[in-house]
Protein backbone atom coordinates (compact mmCIF):
# COMPACT_ATOMS: atom_id res chain seq x y z
CA UNK A 1 0.00 0.00 0.00
CA UNK A 2 1.08 3.42 -0.83
CA UNK A 3 1.17 6.06 1.81
CA UNK A 4 0.06 9.49 0.95
CA UNK A 5 1.63 12.41 2.55
CA UNK A 6 -0.66 15.29 2.88
CA UNK A 7 0.82 18.68 2.71
CA UNK A 8 -0.91 21.44 4.59
CA UNK A 9 -2.73 23.91 2.42
CA UNK A 10 -0.86 27.16 2.00
CA UNK A 11 -1.97 30.49 0.79
CA UNK A 12 0.38 32.55 -1.27
CA UNK A 13 0.85 35.65 0.90
CA UNK A 14 3.16 37.39 -1.49
CA UNK A 15 0.46 39.60 -2.94
CA UNK A 16 -1.30 40.28 0.42
CA UNK A 17 0.88 43.27 1.10
CA UNK A 18 0.02 44.67 -2.33
CA UNK A 19 -3.71 44.19 -1.71
CA UNK A 20 -3.48 45.80 1.74
CA UNK A 21 -1.60 48.74 0.27
CA UNK A 22 -4.19 49.18 -2.51
CA UNK A 23 -7.04 49.06 0.02
CA UNK A 24 -5.28 51.66 2.16
CA UNK A 25 -4.86 53.95 -0.83
CA UNK A 26 -8.51 53.42 -1.84
CA UNK A 27 -9.84 54.38 1.60
CA UNK A 28 -7.53 57.38 1.89
CA UNK A 29 -8.67 58.69 -1.49
CA UNK A 30 -12.40 58.09 -1.02
CA UNK A 31 -12.78 59.13 2.62
CA UNK A 32 -13.58 62.74 3.39
CA UNK A 33 -11.83 64.15 6.41
CA UNK A 34 -13.92 66.78 8.15
CA UNK A 35 -12.13 70.00 8.89
CA UNK A 36 -13.06 72.76 11.29
CA UNK A 37 -15.07 75.35 9.44
CA UNK A 38 -14.37 78.21 11.79
CA UNK A 39 -16.60 81.21 12.23
CA UNK A 40 -18.69 82.39 9.33
CA UNK A 41 -17.97 86.11 9.37
CA UNK A 42 -17.76 88.36 6.37
CA UNK A 43 -14.73 90.59 6.52
CA UNK A 44 -15.22 94.26 5.71
CA UNK A 45 -14.58 95.25 2.14
CA UNK A 46 -11.79 97.57 1.10
CA UNK A 47 -12.55 101.24 1.42
CA UNK A 48 -12.80 102.72 -2.08
CA UNK A 49 -12.68 106.31 -0.82
CA UNK A 50 -10.04 106.49 1.91
CA UNK A 51 -11.06 110.03 2.90
CA UNK A 52 -14.52 108.82 3.86
CA UNK A 53 -13.14 105.89 5.84
CA UNK A 54 -10.88 108.00 8.03
CA UNK A 55 -13.26 110.88 8.67
CA UNK A 56 -13.68 112.18 12.21
CA UNK A 57 -16.56 110.76 14.20
CA UNK A 58 -18.52 112.89 16.63
CA UNK A 59 -17.97 111.52 20.15
CA UNK A 60 -21.68 111.08 20.79
CA UNK A 61 -21.94 108.83 17.70
CA UNK A 62 -19.36 106.39 19.06
CA UNK A 63 -20.33 103.58 21.45
CA UNK A 64 -17.24 102.10 23.09
CA UNK A 65 -17.42 98.45 24.13
CA UNK A 66 -14.28 97.14 25.80
CA UNK A 67 -13.38 93.59 26.83
CA UNK A 68 -10.54 93.13 29.27
CA UNK A 69 -8.30 90.25 30.32
CA UNK A 70 -10.58 89.52 33.30
CA UNK A 71 -13.40 88.73 30.83
CA UNK A 72 -15.40 91.80 31.86
CA UNK A 73 -17.49 93.87 29.46
CA UNK A 74 -17.35 97.66 29.71
CA UNK A 75 -19.66 99.95 27.78
CA UNK A 76 -18.67 103.60 28.05
CA UNK A 77 -16.68 102.72 31.18
CA UNK A 78 -19.49 100.92 33.01
CA UNK A 79 -19.38 97.18 33.67
CA UNK A 80 -22.31 95.39 32.02
CA UNK A 81 -23.40 91.79 31.55
CA UNK A 82 -23.55 90.03 28.21
CA UNK A 83 -27.36 90.07 28.34
CA UNK A 84 -27.40 93.88 28.49
CA UNK A 85 -25.21 94.46 25.42
CA UNK A 86 -27.95 93.96 22.80
CA UNK A 87 -30.39 96.41 24.40
CA UNK A 88 -27.70 99.03 24.95
CA UNK A 89 -26.57 98.81 21.31
CA UNK A 90 -30.17 98.99 20.06
CA UNK A 91 -30.90 102.06 22.21
CA UNK A 92 -27.67 103.73 21.04
CA UNK A 93 -28.15 103.11 17.31
CA UNK A 94 -31.87 103.97 17.29
CA UNK A 95 -31.53 107.05 19.52
CA UNK A 96 -32.35 109.74 16.92
CA UNK A 97 -30.46 112.48 18.75
CA UNK A 98 -30.67 114.84 15.78
CA UNK A 99 -34.47 114.36 15.53
CA UNK A 100 -34.27 113.87 11.76
CA UNK A 101 -34.95 110.14 11.62
CA UNK A 102 -38.62 109.42 10.93
CA UNK A 103 -38.31 105.64 11.45
CA UNK A 104 -36.33 105.76 14.72
CA UNK A 105 -38.05 105.11 18.03
CA UNK A 106 -35.24 106.14 20.39
CA UNK A 107 -35.36 108.47 23.37
CA UNK A 108 -33.43 111.28 21.61
CA UNK A 109 -30.80 111.49 24.35
CA UNK A 110 -28.21 114.24 23.92
CA UNK A 111 -25.30 111.93 24.79
CA UNK A 112 -26.22 109.18 22.32
CA UNK A 113 -26.10 108.83 18.52
CA UNK A 114 -27.58 111.38 16.15
CA UNK A 115 -28.79 108.96 13.49
CA UNK A 116 -28.41 105.21 12.73
CA UNK A 117 -26.25 106.11 9.71
CA UNK A 118 -23.86 107.98 12.01
CA UNK A 119 -23.74 105.42 14.84
CA UNK A 120 -20.46 103.52 15.18
CA UNK A 121 -19.90 100.65 17.62
CA UNK A 122 -16.26 100.35 18.64
CA UNK A 123 -15.38 96.92 20.01
CA UNK A 124 -11.94 96.73 21.60
CA UNK A 125 -10.46 93.75 23.35
CA UNK A 126 -7.38 92.80 25.28
CA UNK A 127 -4.92 90.25 23.91
CA UNK A 128 -5.94 87.92 26.74
CA UNK A 129 -9.69 88.18 26.14
CA UNK A 130 -11.12 84.74 25.50
CA UNK A 131 -12.50 84.06 22.03
CA UNK A 132 -15.78 82.86 23.51
CA UNK A 133 -16.48 86.24 25.12
CA UNK A 134 -15.37 88.19 22.03
CA UNK A 135 -17.63 86.16 19.72
CA UNK A 136 -20.53 86.35 22.19
CA UNK A 137 -20.32 90.15 22.29
CA UNK A 138 -20.09 90.28 18.48
CA UNK A 139 -23.21 88.11 18.32
CA UNK A 140 -25.10 90.43 20.67
CA UNK A 141 -24.17 93.44 18.53
CA UNK A 142 -25.34 91.57 15.43
CA UNK A 143 -28.62 90.63 17.16
CA UNK A 144 -29.24 94.28 18.01
CA UNK A 145 -28.87 95.31 14.37
CA UNK A 146 -30.98 92.35 13.25
CA UNK A 147 -33.81 93.38 15.61
CA UNK A 148 -33.69 97.00 14.38
CA UNK A 149 -33.70 95.89 10.76
CA UNK A 150 -36.50 93.36 11.36
CA UNK A 151 -38.66 96.07 12.95
CA UNK A 152 -38.01 98.39 10.00
CA UNK A 153 -38.86 95.62 7.51
CA UNK A 154 -42.11 94.90 9.31
CA UNK A 155 -43.12 98.57 9.50
CA UNK A 156 -42.08 99.63 5.98
CA UNK A 157 -42.63 96.51 3.89
CA UNK A 158 -45.09 94.56 6.05
CA UNK A 159 -42.89 91.47 5.66
CA UNK A 160 -40.52 89.33 7.68
CA UNK A 161 -36.77 89.46 7.04
CA UNK A 162 -36.96 86.16 5.13
CA UNK A 163 -39.54 87.55 2.68
CA UNK A 164 -37.81 90.71 1.44
CA UNK A 165 -36.20 91.07 -1.96
CA UNK A 166 -32.57 91.95 -2.61
CA UNK A 167 -33.48 95.55 -3.45
CA UNK A 168 -35.47 95.90 -0.22
CA UNK A 169 -32.54 94.45 1.72
CA UNK A 170 -30.22 97.06 0.20
CA UNK A 171 -32.60 99.78 1.44
CA UNK A 172 -32.62 98.23 4.92
CA UNK A 173 -28.81 98.10 4.98
CA UNK A 174 -28.69 101.80 4.09
CA UNK A 175 -31.24 102.67 6.78
CA UNK A 176 -29.44 100.67 9.50
CA UNK A 177 -25.84 100.23 8.31
CA UNK A 178 -23.78 97.78 10.36
CA UNK A 179 -20.81 99.96 11.33
CA UNK A 180 -18.57 98.20 13.82
CA UNK A 181 -14.92 98.97 14.45
CA UNK A 182 -12.84 96.19 16.03
CA UNK A 183 -9.53 96.95 17.72
CA UNK A 184 -7.16 94.85 19.79
CA UNK A 185 -5.59 96.82 22.62
CA UNK A 186 -1.92 95.99 23.00
CA UNK A 187 -0.62 95.40 26.49
CA UNK A 188 2.70 96.88 27.61
Automatic annotation (TrEMBL):
The keyword Heme does not apply. The keyword Transmembrane applies. Transmembrane segments: none annotated. It is a single-pass membrane protein; Single-pass type II membrane protein. It holds the Pfam family ExbD. It is found in: Cell membrane. Keywords: Cell membrane, Membrane, Protein transport, Transmembrane, Transmembrane helix, Transport. Belongs to the ExbD/TolR family. This is Biopolymer transporter ExbD. It comes from Winogradskyella marincola.
Amino acid sequence: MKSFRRHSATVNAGSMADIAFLLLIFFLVTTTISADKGILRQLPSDCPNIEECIKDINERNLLRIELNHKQEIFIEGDVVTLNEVKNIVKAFVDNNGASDCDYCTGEQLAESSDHPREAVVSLSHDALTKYELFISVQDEITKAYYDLRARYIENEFNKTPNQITDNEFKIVKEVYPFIVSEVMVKRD
